[in-house]
Amino acid sequence: MVFLNSFNADPNLAGWGGFTTRWFSEVLQDQRIRDDFITSLTIALATTVLSLLIAITASLWMRSASPRGRAILDITTVMRLVLPEIVVAVGLFVLFRWLDFPLGRTTVIIGHTVFLSAYATVVLQARVATIGTSLEAAAADLGATPWRAFRRVTLPQLYPAIAVAGLLVFTFSLDDLITSQFLGGGSVETLPVLLLGLIRHQVTPSVNAVGSILILLTLLTFLCALALVGVRTLSNLSSSRTESEEA
């Protein structure tokens, strides 16, 4: 309905007034919407990078961690998943105010990373648990340094999970409202926060147009990640087939 009404010529959405694309033109020409979209995109990209770094590090560290260390990591990860987002947002808000840390883009990125890195960690942990360490040990026996073994052996095996985790974090961060509203202060306004303010007065076709753009962007991101995973899988199958034929 959001997608259909974004093409509705009736400004009051009382009925179908015909097909039009002028609402998209108005949205693209609105400087405030464009600025908020760029802000949301920047925050989502930064959150994705930080969350993946945390998730990859935690997942690989867990293989050699002590049972107590694994338990602590599992507890902290599960806590961030089961706690309502508003509880995390309020807690971070109180912490930042207590530290006298100014609210803005940095605090929103930190808030998104604290909340969403747990999803990335779960995805990466599941992948790391299936790949084992035999290939890394073989690379070390052949003289590879730890960094080279990670870059040439471990990381390629994690690419599908990294793509999926990055997709989850990016889409959740782009659509996030609660954390952005609590930690943005008065200087940062993301697109979901703007939409919330607009629909308090009236749901217009322009609001539906913005929603449709977000939906299409999410689908496009998903298709890109799916294509990357598919290409990687086909490449691995081709390499395995070639090695088998040579053997």
Automatic annotation (TrEMBL):
Domain ABC transmembrane type-1 residues, every copy: 37-225
TM regions (residue ranges): 37-61, 81-99, 105-124, 158-174, 209-231
Key words, A-Z: Cell membrane, Membrane, Transmembrane, Transmembrane helix, Transport
InterPro entries: Bact_Polyamine_Transport (IPR051789), MetI-like (IPR000515), MetI-like_sf (IPR035906)
Location in the cell: Cell membrane
Membrane association type: Multi-pass membrane protein
Pfam families (UniProt xref): BPD_transp_1 (PF00528)
Residue ranges that the Swiss-Prot or TrEMBL entry lists as coiled coil: none
This protein's record includes keyword RNA-binding: no
SUPFAM superfamilies in the cross-refs: MetI-like
GO cellular component entries: plasma membrane
Major subcellular site: membrane
Top-level taxon of origin: Bacteria
GO biological process: transmembrane transport
Keyword flag Cell membrane: yes
Family to which this protein belongs: Belongs to the binding-protein-dependent transport system permease family. CysTW subfamily.
This protein's name: ABC transporter permease
Originating species: Mycolicibacterium fluoranthenivorans
Lineage: Bacteria, Bacillati, Actinomycetota, Actinomycetes, Mycobacteriales
